[in-house]
Give the backbone structure.
Amino acid sequence: MVIHTLGENNSLFNRFIAEIRDVNVQNDPLRFRRNLERVGEIYAYEISKTLDFADQSVETPLGTAIASLPKDEVVVASILRAGLPLHNGLLNYFDRSENAFISAYRKHTEDGKFKINFEYISSPSIDGKVVILADPMLATGSSMELAYKAMLTKGTPKHVHIVSVIASQEGVDFIKNNLPAENTTIWNGVVDAELNTKSYIVPGCGDAGDLAFGAKLG
Ligand SMILES: O=P(O)(O)OC[C@H]1O[C@H](OP(=O)(O)OP(=O)(O)O)[C@H](O)[C@@H]1O
Ligand SMILES: O=c1cc[nH]c(=O)[nH]1
Ligand SMILES: [Mg+2]
């Protein structure tokens, strides 16, 4: 399985990740969401380089130009709710793509543990298409695995790009060991070493869903 960690290279991308993590910037939810969106835009550009391209002619007012354009059909998929700003960023660039949404969230129990609740998927057929499955946080990897399996009920994809912004090493290893290697690629912004006792990524950024959209009950 090919794994990219974009934050290992020096670029403006690292500024967006740093602001997403920064407790002094997180008090501005608009900026938090916009930074996730900007990261999504950069991922879209990087993932676009892996697609198949074909020449197409474009009529200009003065003649005909040849453009090499992506020919793959793309489905942008994300996990509610923290995935929404990242989804928007991907869709800003893959503006002709189809879209899918999966609800998968941590349902906490009284013993302090949680299980992943799945309630909803809205997706087109993914047969032969390139699926970009996005969630900003890849902690244990359980939500992503569940979302991946839910997507597979909608067809057989040509390729699946798993996109996270902040991942844990455990989450990356889990995906690597549980998803097929040959047509899956993982894209992380950064990979942190630790999960705490509540399975939050450390140093991570905190709860991405709450930072983007506010605290929720339950
Ligand atoms: O890798 P995992 O251990 O499964 O954890 C990661 C998941 O947890 C968060 O969602 P959360 O349940 O907080 O829902 P939210 O997006 O509604 O906040 C996050 O957005 C991921 O979906
Ligand atoms: O660190 C984490 C883990 C799961 N979900 C988050 O939002 N943050
Ligand atoms: Mg959350």
About this structure: The mean pLDDT is 96. The chain has one domain: 2-213. The radius of gyration is 18 Å.
